[in-house]
Amino acid sequence: NKCFFEWEDALRQLRRPSPRNQKRMQEVIYSAIKLSYKHLESPELQSFFLFCAQNQVGSSIRYEDLLKKCFGLRLFHGISTLEEARNRTYTLVRSLKDSGLLLDDPDTSRCFCMHDLTHDAALLIAYETQNVLVMRQEDPVEWPNEDDMKMCTAISVFSKDIRELPDKLECPELRCLHVFANDKEGSFKISDTFFK
């Protein structure tokens, strides 16, 4: 319910934010994305949106990888076959694309993507609502303290610099651990005590 000139001004601010207004703009964008998230039609779609954000590697999300994880984690109630899970995954992706929270990948039909701003907001929502920890390429790999780790429901590490996992993780609520290490030398180490 805004006038055309207000939309043009908002677009200009997004494209060229002044340092003085950048923090305010980020808050506005985050609140807009959070509002879109809250207005998704079901808790299942909200949860799926956050799951997509956790599984974006680089700039895209592969349908096949997401499908395997959804099926393996039994994210969809009442679904017992891979074909049913595929249909549900594609349906939910289409709903999120229709709402503007996901985008087609211009390079391939096997993937879809999430805008960087949407992705950042989704990871923040996942952290706040589901105790999800995501360490990305640009972040240094720093494991949180024990109390924070005990609350984690999912941990995703996407880092080219990670060489090893801690000796142990005490995460009784953890449902998913995803480590994507760009280790070309084969020196990535997992302690014998890690999975105890």
Descriptive account of the structure:
The protein has helices spanning 4-15, 19-38, 43-54, 63-72, 82-98, 116-130, 146-151; strands at residues 61-62, 103-104, 111-113, 132-135, 154-159, 176-181. The chain is α/β, with parallel strands linked by helices and 196 residues long. The strands form two sheets. It has a three-stranded antiparallel β-sheet with strand order 1-3-2. Strands 4-5-6 form a three-stranded parallel β-sheet. Strand 4 (132-135), helix 7 and strand 5 (154-159) form a beta-alpha-beta unit. Helix 4 (63-72) crosses helix 5 (82-98). The mean pLDDT is 84.
Side-by-side strand order of the widest sheet: 1-3-2
Mean pLDDT: 84
- Main sheet overview: 3 strands, antiparallel
Name the assembly state: single chain
Helix content: 40-55%
Please give the alpha-carbon distance between the first and last residues. Answer: 56 Å
Strand content: 5-15%
Low-confidence stretches: none
| Secondary-structure element pattern, one letter each | HHHEHHEEHEHEE
Count of distinct strands: 6
Radius of gyration: 19 Å
Can you tell me the overall shape? globular
- Briefly note the structural class of the backbone: alpha/beta
- Total helical elements: 7
Topology summary:
Elements (H helix, E strand, L loop, with lengths): L3 H12 L3 H20 L4 H12 L6 E2 H10 L9 H17 L4 E2 L6 E3 L2 H15 L1 E4 L10 H6 L2 E6 L16 E6 L15
Parallel strand pairs: 4-5, 5-6
Antiparallel strand pairs: 1-3, 2-3
Write a short abstract of this structure.
The protein is an alpha/beta fold and 196 residues long.
